[in-house]
Amino acid sequence: MTLKLFRDFMRDHFAFTLVYFISHILVSIYCNYYISSNIQLMYLLSIYFYVFIIFLCFRFIKYVSANREIQRLSENIEIEEKGFSCEQQAAITLIHRIHQTYQDQIYEVKAQADNTHKFISQWIHNLKTPLSVIDLILQNYKMNSTGHAVALQHIGEEKDKILSMLNQMLKFFRLEHFSRDYTPEPVNLLESLRSLINSKRNQYIYNNVYPLIECEEESIMVMTDSKWNMAMLEQIVSNAIKYSDAGEETKSIHFHIERRGDQVVLSIRDEGIGIEKVDLQRIFQPFFTGKNGRTHHQATGIGLYVCSEIARKLGHRLTISSEVNQGTEAQISYLSKLKDSVM
Q1: Pairing state of beta strands 263-269 and 251-260?
Q2: Which of 240, 268, 292, 331 is the most core-located residue (most Cβ within 10 A)?
Q3: What radius of gyration, in Å, describes the C-alpha atoms of the chain?
Q4: What's the CA angle centered on 106, arms 102 and 108, to 5 degrees?
Q5: Mean pLDDT of the chain
Q6: Residue ranges of the alpha helices (H) in the chain?
Q7: Contact predicate 161/167, CB 8 Å
Q8: What is the tens place of the pLDDT at every residue in 132-191?
Q9: Higher pLDDT residue, 112 or 260?
Q10: How many whole angstroms from its chain centre is CA 191?
Q11: What is the pTM of this model?
């Protein structure tokens, strides 16, 4: 390693060495022939040589020191402040900056991989529950084949849960390539909302929950991506239905749309169990289920995280407010026209 370093050093200083000796030889010859013939050329050259060797030793020490600092960067060790030349310092700083950027990218990839691993593990764990329920229903049906209609109904319910979890998983992975599948366009918010409500008609009836829409205009346009916006609204509405906990009492989900300056605000409010105040600050964190997740075992803790990411990438503002046993309200602020700040 040292021999190679020395060869590299001499190769880097070859041009300097050549210029140094040629210039001093020419100066010595000039002095001997035009100034005084008594000047000893060999004496002058020996002085030049010794001065050059001393200078080169100092240069080699700095060269080795700079090389060691570069090697230390590969071990992620902080650089010591030393008297490097401007050229060496610039090279070391540039390498350190590239190395730091590389480390940050590695950390980001690892964090994303950890999140994906956690999500898949949680998803598989939650998927086992409806499958176990289906297996139990089938076993009971084999023992008592008279209740096939009830069995089919329960199997259908568990099938819907599995389908919902599969859709959540697909949304989670599609978020990584959001920019490839994003098309901002004017969307009729009221029409999209009605289409979503109609698609969930059976869930409303089964849970004894009914929608109420309040909007002063028949057509209200917002700038968004229709598919991603529908995915976000579907998750919020599904949560509202799931946590309404109506039982025998009929409850409602209130949809309110209004204009506020250059924005359109959609409010979705249920009359359900609500969210604990201490949990409100963490509801957008991935895999966080809170107190409600312990009572509703199908909760994955990924739905609102996906909603918050979709809203952020679409340039919308999503907020959640809630009171225990009073209900939860989600507000989404849309732009009524496209701005340069929307990415």
Answers
A1: antiparallel
A2: 240
A3: 36
A4: 115
A5: 78
A6: 2-12, 14-30, 41-74, 86-143, 148-174, 189-199, 201-206, 226-242, 277-280, 290-295, 303-314
A7: no
A8: 777 777 777 666 665 666 667 677 777 777 777 777 777 777 777 676 777 888 999 999
A9: 260
A10: 32
A11: 0.59
